[in-house]
Amino acid sequence: MNRISMISLGCPKNQVDAERMLALLDAEGFVIGDIYDGVDAVIINTCGFIDAAKEEAIENILDMAQLKEEGLVGKIIVTGCLAERHKEEILSEIPEVDAVVGIGANGSIAQIVKNLLGQESGEIPVNESENEDAYCCFPAKEALPITGTRMLTTPEYWSYLKIAEGCSNRCSYCVIPYIRGNYRSVPMETLIEEAKALANEGTKELILIAQDTTNYGVDLYHELALPKLLNELCEIDGIEWIRMLYCYPDKITDELLEVMANQPKVLNYFDLPLQHADDKILKAMNRRGTGEENRQLIKKIREKLPDAIIRTTFIVGYPGEGEEEFENLVEFVNEIEFDRLGCFAFSPQEGTPAFDAEGQVDEQTKVDRGEIIMRDQLEITAIRNHERIGTVCRVLVEEFDPYTDSYSGRTYMDAPEIDGKIDFTTDLEYNVGDFAEVRIIGINDYDLIGRDALCP
After folding, report:
1. Strands 447-452 and 422-425, how do they pair?
2. Could you give the CA distance from residue 396 to residue 157 in angstroms, rounded to a whole number?
3. Sequential DSSP letters for 130-197
4. pTM above 0.90, yes or no
5. So what's the pLDDT on residue 120?
6. Which residues in the chain show pLDDT less than 70?
């Protein structure tokens, strides 16, 4: 049996792609193994969204090239967003790579590996490359499977549910539409069946993801169908929490807020990628809505759902962002007092309108502005966390530390691998994936400290 290993980088959406490829390989009899035990091939499923992601991908490919030289890795296969966007650069700069595969070929990954290992030669389209020794396969982006069996790489008690592929928003800085194509919703009945299967495998927290989650259904049903999907998912036994990521603010409708208010399983957690607050910059970004409209949306959310947790991301140093535009952003951050906030320096991507737009900001200014935003946010987070001391939260238990005799987990306020956690002590015993009622008694930077509310 041939042994295969997978390294998946980047966002949860890419992780689901990796899980589908792993399932296809497993179905064909490949053994999924650890790189350091020696494998016949390693697949590096890359991200290519911003420069930092590209650098991480290249570092991983070079690491695998070194292991190949040491005899621990046979073939090196590069898939994902970086492969889709920078095929020739990968092949010309890293000759150790044996294959570069576009996202449209993910569904053929098992056959591609067989071809590379000389097991058989299937009818897989091969694109010519300057590197005659390398194998390239680049079908249309739309050939990327948006459904299919997965080999889960998350803990069994929480899973991602990818409800759509691609994006049609065309933000001026973003390469996703060029890499992934236009928005394609997964049929609702398919999602319901997948969610039921995940529940049967032990999933308690279901996390809905897409490039624009709130746009779900427009292409298939000619309406914003996320509220209807949520109501259907809430009927599934075993699913206790439903969380949504990547919700665009202009599609947070009254209907969606009503569902969130009335369905206990749907967590009042809003991941709103606002990106900026200054109207001039928002227009340059080709973002729908204004700073004032976003301000009013957040006010509405907090009036309708007083316990709502609002997370956002901002880009600093976008072309044309002067001192005035940046100050508008700083004022917005301090006025709104977000519960969670991420800040990124603008990373120009070739082929996007923002790449060579006028008014580029120097790198040090980007760094300085990002530090200002995050410094202010740290103070806001500390204040908001202090306000939670004494309250009781439901916690999904994720780990036990025998050295401190304590557990850690997440409340509804925290998405996995993104936000913080809560460490708590108890006289009871819990298994990973159990729920506990925990009283918050302190804070530790972005994390919380608690005590089991059922214990004295």
Report:
1. parallel
2. 9
3. S-TTSEEE---GGGS-SS------S-TTEEEEE-EES-----TT--HHHHH-S-EEPPHHHHHHHHHH
4. yes
5. 63
6. 1, 120-134
Burial of 66 (0-12, 13-18, 19+ CB in 10 A): exposed
End-to-end Cα spacing for the chain: 55
pLDDT per position as a tens digit, 301-324: 999 999 999 999 999 999 999 999
Angle (nearest 5°) at CA 213 between 261 and 237 = 55
Residue-averaged pLDDT of the chain: 93
DSSP reduced 3-state for 53: helix
DSSP letter for each residue of 360-424:
PPPHHHHHHHHHHHHHHHHHHHHHHHHHTTT-EEEEEEEEEETTTTEEEEE-TT--TTTS--EEE
pLDDT for position 233: 98
Q: Is the dihedral of CA 214, 219, 223, 228 positive or negative?
A: negative
DSSP element (H, E) containing 64: helix 51-69
Distance in angstroms (rounded) separating the CA atoms of residues 81 and 100: 11
CB 396 within 8 Å of CB 204: yes
| Chain CA centroid to CA 113, Å | 27
Q: Kindly state the tokens that stand for 157.
A: 């008690």
Report residue 247 as tokens: 């919700």
Question: Residue 359, SS3?
Answer: coil
Query: 10 Å Cβ neighbour count for 193?
Result: 12
Q: Which residue has the tokens 């044309």?
A: 320
Report pLDDT for 122: 54
